[in-house]
């Protein structure tokens, strides 16, 4: 059987199986309005970690979905110059994603079916494993809108690019990308399997630019989840947007009609930053200084001068010496919405440890991911304030960066990732 016909059969078989599971999810709300469809697509946090998250919905899964414990993130460069080949790839990827997120093999023939003389349609390392809450979320980078595919006129204004921030030391080889896919799951083998198979399907049309494994989510995206800790030992993302915050998600997360790119309505923007932590230096820093840098106590996670983690922060409180309890250069003050014209982000970051650097120091830190309605008014001003003033900068270094437009969800088995962008 020839290569083209195998691809067509792969897509048809995957879409057909995916369609069988789509009937339970009714999709009919106005894009950008998080309603029952959003909650269904998110999956309840009380669900077993082996359960599947619905693939179809108004918005892509993997954004407000209660954050899973493991990440495999990948950025791709598109190597084909043919728009129809890009569209075919996205259709094949969508069909594979619909299958894998439900605990099935990537291809219609599976890992042991099909012609013995041909490579299998699935690499096989996830055979027998449950869906494990796998979500696959795609984004389109600014470079996809160059002159290769005739998409320049559809480039959204929010994808104009990020400014250079003070102190960053970005490595081009692990930054940017035409496309990205975020795989989150409760089992690392399930997440790695998904990215491996999508890369395999894309051979000859895309190449991997870089990828990142993550563990131990550093943000909660549901009020039912406890706030996790980063590798510095502090609770991270206390003020994060949550899937239950319907009105705030509408205002701060989902791209709406009139925002300047109709194909992106119901989608979002993703900013990624790989932030290396100087772990050894931090570990020799006193508790008092650590807490002053974050502006929170390390145990409970409460803001300094407060009792509980979620107490509303009063930045005017002063200590016995008359000085503000939360310093002007404390991380929590600089990042707080009240000091950034109300700007909020939905964060889905993960810890990473990539071995050591050859000098006995851990190559470790935070792979930061934040979704938002417009990075120009949300991430950019917040990060600029942090880059200029945050006392935490002594202990961290930003080494990679990415910006992606994340399209709305796939409505049904006849739809695919980016269809509104690529089709007239």
From TrEMBL:
User: PROSITE patterns annotated for this entry?
Assistant: DYP_PEROXIDASE, TAT
Cofactor notes: Binds 1 heme b (iron(II)-protoporphyrin IX) group non-covalently per subunit.
- Which controlled-vocabulary keywords does the entry list? Heme, Iron, Lyase, Metal-binding, Oxidoreductase, Peroxidase, Signal
| Entry-linked NCBIfam families | Dyp_perox_fam (TIGR01413), tat_substr_1 (TIGR01412)
Residue ranges annotated for the Dyp-type peroxidase N-terminal domain, each copy included: 60-215
Give the required cofactors: heme b
State the EC number(s). Answer: 1.11.1.-
Query: What this chain does, per the record?
Result: Involved in the recovery of exogenous heme iron. Extracts iron from heme while preserving the protoporphyrin ring intact.
What name does UniProt use for this protein? Deferrochelatase
The text of the family note is: Belongs to the DyP-type peroxidase family.
List localization entries: Cell envelope
Q: Which gene encodes it?
A: efeB
For whether the record's keyword set contains ATP-binding, the answer is no
Question: Would the keyword Nucleotide-binding turn up in this protein's UniProt record?
Answer: no
Q: What is its main location?
A: other
Catalysed reactions, semicolon-separated: heme b + 2 H(+) = protoporphyrin IX + Fe(2+)
The Dyp-type peroxidase C-terminal domain extends over: 227-410
């Amino acid at each position: 059987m020839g290569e083209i016909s195998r691809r067509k059969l792969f897509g048809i078989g995957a879409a057909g199986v995916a369609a069988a599971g789509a009937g339970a999810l009714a999709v009919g709300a106005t894009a950008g309005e998080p309603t029952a469809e959003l909650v269904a697509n998110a999956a309840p946090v009380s669900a077993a970690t082996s359960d599947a998250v619905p693939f179809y919905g108004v918005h892509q899964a993997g954004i407000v979905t209660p954050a899973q414990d493991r990440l495999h993130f990948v950025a791709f460069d598109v190597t084909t110059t043919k728009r129809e080949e890009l569209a075919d790839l996205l259709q094949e990827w969508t069909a594979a994603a619909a299958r894998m997120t439900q605990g099935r093999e990537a291809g219609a023939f599976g890992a042991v079916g099909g012609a013995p003389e041909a490579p299998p349609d699935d690499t096989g390392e996830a055979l027998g494993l449950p869906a494990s809450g796998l979500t696959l979320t795609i984004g389109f980078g600014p470079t996809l809108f160059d002159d290769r595919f005739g998409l320049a006129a559809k480039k959204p204004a929010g994808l104009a690019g990020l400014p250079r921030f003070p102190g960053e030391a970005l490595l081009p080889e692990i930054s940017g990308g035409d496309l990205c896919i975020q795989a989150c799951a409760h089992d690392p083998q399930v997440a790695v399997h998904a990215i491996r198979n999508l890369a395999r399907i894309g051979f000859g049309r895309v190449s991997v630019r870089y990828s990142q494994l993550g563990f131990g989510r550093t943000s909660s995206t549901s009020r039912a989840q406890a706030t996790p800790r980063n590798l510095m030992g502090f609770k991270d993302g206390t003020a994060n947007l949550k899937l239950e915050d319907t009105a705030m998600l509408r205002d701060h997360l989902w791209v709406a009609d009139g925002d300047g790119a109709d194909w992106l309505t119901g989608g979002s923007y993703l900013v990624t930053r790989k932030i290396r932590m100087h772990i050894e230096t931090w570990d020799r820093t006193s508790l008092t200084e650590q807490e002053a840098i974050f502006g929170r106590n390390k145990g409970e996670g409460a803001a300094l001068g407060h009792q509980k983690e979620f107490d509303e922060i009063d930045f005017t409180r002063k200590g016995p010496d008359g000085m503000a309890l939360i310093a002007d250069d404390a991380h929590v003050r600089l990042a707080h919405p009240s000091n950034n014209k109300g700007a909020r982000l939905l964060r889905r970051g993960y810890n990473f440890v990539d071995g050591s650097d050859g000098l006995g120091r851990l190559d470790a830190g935070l792979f930061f991911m934040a979704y938002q309605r417009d990075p120009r008014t949300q991430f950019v001003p917040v990060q600029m304030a942090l880059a200029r003033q945050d006392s935490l900068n002594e202990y961290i270094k930003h080494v990679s960066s990415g910006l992606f437009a994340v399209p709305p969800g796939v409505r049904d088995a006849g739809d695919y990732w980016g269809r509104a962008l690529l089709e007239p």
